Amino acid sequence: MKIITAENYVTTLKAASRPYHNHYYAMYSSMLGGMVTDPALMQLPIDDHIVHRGDGVFDTFKCVDGAIYNLDAHLQRLERSATAIGIEWPGGLNELRELSIATIRAGAKRNCSGRVMLARGPGGFGVSPFEAPERALYIIAYQLGQPFMKKKPLGATVRRSHVPTKAPPFAGIKNCNYLPNVLMKREAVEWGIDFVAGFDNNGFLTEGATENIGIVTRSGELAFPRLENTLAGTSMLRLMELARNSQTDNANLISVVTLRDITEQEIFDAAELLIVGTTLNVVAAVEYEGAAIGSGTPGPVWRKLNQMLEDDITENKELRTVVFSANEGSKDG
Questions:
Q1: pLDDT tens digit string along 40-66?
Q2: CB neighbours of 182 closer than 8 A, spacing ≥ 6?
Q3: What is the pTM of this model?
């Protein structure tokens, strides 16, 4: 067996590189105290509790045409999740913001995803959070996925998940133990569909593997599940705000915007079924459990809401944190 030493460590890492490493652009590590842009060097300590216990929180944002969209909402949610499990970053939100921007800039891609991971930190292999003497922060800039409807313009298929839903308060904490979400995504892939929908013990809709799910009723109500059993999606909350602000102009499409309990039967009866996420934007789900939703084609509310969100992402200066000027950064991210 080959013995890895300090002298051959980096060359060994480089020899073990894989094609998918080309999708990783830059990484900040508080343990290194700096930034790396060589994917071979994007490493975490094995004794960090985020690795062997899932003891950490994360959030994911996207940079579109040189500016990060809705960054503050993502970092505020990260802070809420961290507070819920007793993790605090000494530099606070301001430093998290500065380092997030710096990481995207180091990646040099005008279009990319960014993920911030705030970890309990290294210090041993036990379960006690007090074993780790200091917190750790990792931020990665990586390839941005294409919005779903760009890939599948005819819409998405959905089935009911068999994976038990997360109970409060864990449903609202974006932690790094994502096993239920992983199993939900596995279901979707193995069943040959696009998404699965979770339900709580009372039979009410919760969320997808990494997505928020809502309905448009035949009376024009735009409804998403109450937040007790779901993660408060930044894109969902922004979409609801946009919908409310445009109700006067779109009264023929949207009568009211609500958070409430949603039954499975209401999905079958809905005029439209919508799926929302940071990378996805707004998805029109046209089939649930093999049955057509509404007309079985993407509907007018989806069309209007998706356009409003896309315009917000590309044009809302208040929510766009500029990282690159017009002539900076590569556009092929």
A1: 999 999 999 999 999 999 999 999 999
A2: 209
A3: 0.96
